[in-house]
Amino acid sequence: MTSREKILSAVRQNQPGEIPMPDIHYPDNVSSNIFEQFVKTVTGIGGEVIHCSGYPEIQQHLQKRFPEPARIINTINELPGFETIAEPSDPHTFSNVSVTVMLGNFGVAENGAIWLTEEHMLNSALPYISEHLALVLHRNSIVSHLHEAYDRIGHADYRLGTFIAGPSKTADIEQSLVLGAHGPKSLIVFLVN
Amino acid sequence: MQQHQTHAELAEQFNRDINRVNWHDQTLWMVREKRDKAAQQVPDWEQLRETASQIKNHTLAHLHAYLLEFEQQALANGIQVHWAADAEEHNRIVHRIIQEHGVDRIVKSKSMLTEECGLNEYLLQQGIEVVDTDLGERIVQLAGEPPSHIVLPCIHWKKEEIGELFHQHLGTPKGNADPDFLTRAARAHLREHFMMRRVAITGVNFAVAETGEFVVCTNEGNADLGAQLADVHIACMGIEKIIPKRNHLGVFLRLLARSATGQPITTYSSHFKKPGPGKALHIVLVDNGRSTRLGSDDFRNALKCIRCGACFNTCPVYRRSGGHSYHTAIAGPIGSILAPALDMEKHADLPFASTLCGSCTNVCPVKIDIHQQLYTWRQVLIKNGHASSTKKAGIQLTGMVLSKPWLFRVSGKVARWIMRTFPGLMNNRFNPWTKQRELPMPPKQSFRDWYVNNRSHD
Ligand code: SF4
Question: Is A47-85+98-192 in CATH node 3.30.43.10?
């Protein structure tokens, strides 16, 4: 008998009798202003929120914030300027990227997380290897909590999907919070109309 | 005979430095308070715990079907699925995959399962260097220690000591103990490893039967950086990590980080569904005693654990004895009910390392009856002859006294008189209860006597 068969037959023999699957209960008192709640939560977990009218403003902001010779990678078609990358490329070539700009699928008000899938990443190492990360989010794409988030994701097929909530962080040294453990040291969220 | 020191002996060593114990205690209590604050901000918190508990109960009752569904979906996604009956087989499988890719150095992010299996030591013996990339895990790895907490691996280390450790191993300036500076130094050191390694190992927080994907949660981003830069990603998981549906993640991710550190969610919750172009993705499903535990009505519940660490942070014994006193990969209350199932003799002391106050059960996000299981384990251990002789004698004596009300009253009276008249008899070095603490002076009267007297005045 293979280990697979052994494990499966032991599990079948030992699992207890039928227990029904519960329904998922949705929170009753959801905040009436999820937009404000989202902004507050992102800020609370170390992110920065910038309200923008559109892509030209984002471009200006990034140019000012990350002056030459910073390496800025742009993965959004509508955003003018900056470096674009060919897919597929070797992720090791991104080790000197200062900031990557990406489109977030949607945000979650209760925890400040932004859902991203690999089609918006162009290269799936970019959200983690860049020194800073900038995510663009449409104001109307915010849900109140994670249950709603998974309703929205539904049965979507992806290779990699991830919630990113704030910059990379650690508190492993005496519980002192340090931003930028291995991943981005800062997270900028551009909220556009 | 036990080969190692018991929890009581190791805790005694930890307790020699009272300032350190207080600091350890307070740091963990602070984390517990953060958890409370986060939980209070979720109005339906109790309902959420109940739902999580029921989903886990349901999953365990149908684990056979869900394991098969997960395997089928994962294979369809292009993931290679391996099954390991025990720790040794798990280690062999991982080693074989590494060998197939012809490398001798790998990176690994936090995985309590690989700690349970002793993977690092095994690979080291085979000539494979493993670099733990979680900062806390890297610190204890450099120090040659196991983690002392499942979420906060180096919670027992002071920053000055970490500064010294980094000075020795990473060449940071002597005397620099600034957390910011030390974290930057570790970032640069580990970035080199990330850039060079072609195989990355991660743990798994949840695996979804419906979709064949698995989710890994970290704050540092080390699991992601490892997995995205390597050609081969090996994810290791216990078979109890399965959940039925993708939308169940909403329930568990709302609970996990809030229970662990008080954050609303970890920075990264990555859903790995398919291997990247030209890359390999492996999953190792490990039993190692889990299928046997599944058959036990008393102890099955422990399989619901999502490894949040809340029961550690709240436990008065853990906070004041430190993780290493549990001499097992998973310490704390949950470790004390998991370990005896793997080796009853070796871990017979652990279910006694508790006050049975029940605080662990109260904070557990999946409602495991931890303190009840600790109590049941004590009975099992005594029945199997695994309790120490003093404990056994004490329990027998207590049993006798409690079963006879007259004897209980008389012995209470005698004990109070003795303790008031000769306090040194109890507060001495032969009584383990009076190590690092003093017994208060007992009252003259028992509650029963007081009650009888006062009731008649009404
Ligand atoms: S037993 Fe409960 S509280 Fe303890 S680590 Fe597991 S899930 Fe968390």
Answer: no
